[in-house]
Specification:
With 344 residues, the chain is an alpha+beta fold. The chain has nine helices and 17 strands. Strands 1-2-5-6-11-14-15-16 form an eight-stranded antiparallel β-sheet. The protein has a three-stranded antiparallel β-sheet with strand order 7-8-17, with no helix packed on it. It has a two-stranded antiparallel sheet with strand order 3-4.
Length: 344
């Protein structure tokens, strides 16, 4: 045996051992399903991995809760709402969401606004207060509503009026999906689907090796949430004009979150600019975007803006796609969707 062949034997053995190791690792991977409760709703996560990652996933979700939950007395946002001067240098999650929220507020001319909490509460949704506000009460609340009245400066939130409250409920679930997705990517998980209260982030393929299928519920007057008939099934990731892929989806709708009082229907989406529930023709807004926090916020914005204004936003932002269900002039269901969205 010549010296050249002898030198190659250790390399061949190393390659064989490496191949065996990689093969065993791949065989040990399986699609796992975790579920639980967070942010007052439920999460469902499917991912392909060798180990069960649920404890670590829930640890990530608790970090989001500790930053953004209004129902957690010790959270960053609760402390700010109480008027405490919170040093935000070590609160990257809150800062990230606050900056994104302010940016989208500017883009939508205030249709999305995280200071809307007092109006939401007054209209009976935040804390289930069924006493509808008078016009005088709405006007008095609007004095301290407005995203321009709050700023992030020197690592602290500054308010023009201390009665101003922050409410991230229209962006927190989406952000929670993003945080879990980041964690899974750090663990080299390349196939997953994360769903928190209807907001979704996907990566790669499902257990059949296909694109993930995400259902869009048909809008019906069903406050009990029992009717889950699907209007459409979208495939994700979706295409983007620039060649990138869009992996996050969020839906907002007035067809389930509403109540009747004195024969009139009141939607849960409040227009921060007027102080009143929206009366637009959009029944459901599903947004596909680069991040779920962004999709979450824009879906809420579109419910406030209505069909025409939502389409103008989409024209300005090609990185955002939408599937909009609305009532046409005859009162019948109609669909408008971005061309890049792929249905089953």
């Amino acid at each position: 045996m010549n010296k050249k062949l002898l030198w190659q034997i250790p390399l061949l053995l190393l390659l064989v051992a490496g191949t065996i190791y990689i093969t065993r690792q791949e065989r040990s991977k399986t699609f796992r399903h975790n579920e639980g409760k967070i942010f007052g709703t439920f999460y469902h996560i499917t991912y392909e991995a060798s180990d069960d990652l649920q404890p670590a996933i829930e640890a990530e979700l608790r970090k989001v809760d500790e930053a953004l939950s209004m129902f957690n007395d010790s959270s960053v946002i609760s402390r700010i709402n109480r008027g405490e001067h919170v040093d935000l240098r070590n609160q990257p999650m809150f800062v990230e969401v606050f900056r994104l929220a302010q940016s989208i507020s500017k883009e939508t001319d205030g249709a999305f606004d995280i200071t809307v909490a007092p109006l939401v509460n007054a209209w009976g949704f935040g804390f289930k207060n069924e006493q509808l506000p008078s016009a005088i009460a709405v006007d008095s609340l609007r004095q301290f509503i407005g995203y321009k009245s709050i700023t992030l400066k020197d690592h602290r939130i500054s308010k023009k009026d201390q009665r101003t409250m922050l409410d991230c409920s229209a962006i927190a679930k989406g952000y929670g999906c993003d945080v879990v997705a980041r964690y899974l990517r750090r663990q080299d998980v390349s196939n997953f689907m994360i769903e928190i209260g209807g907001e979704v982030v996907v990566e790669g393929k499902n257990d059949r090796g296909e694109k993930w299928r995400i259902g869009v519920t048909k809008p019906t007057d069903d406050a009990s949430n029992q009717n889950n008939e699907l209007q459409a099934v979208l495939k994700l990731p979706a295409r983007h004009d620039g060649g990138a892929t869009l992996k996050a989806l969020a839906t907002s709708g007035n067809y389930r979150n509403f109540y009747y009082k004195d024969g009139r229907r009141y939607a849960h989406t409040i227009d921060p600019r007027t102080g009143y529930p929206v009366q637009h023709n959009i029944l459901s807004a599903t947004v596909v975007a680069p991040s779920c926090a962004m999709a979450d916020a824009y879906a809420t914005s579109f419910m406030v803006l209505g069909l025409d204004e939502a389409q103008k936003i989409l024209e300005k932002h090609p990185e955002i796609k939408a599937y909009l269900i609305y009532n046409d002039e005859k009162g019948k269901y109609a669909i408008w969707q971005s061309a890049e969205l792929e249905e089953q």
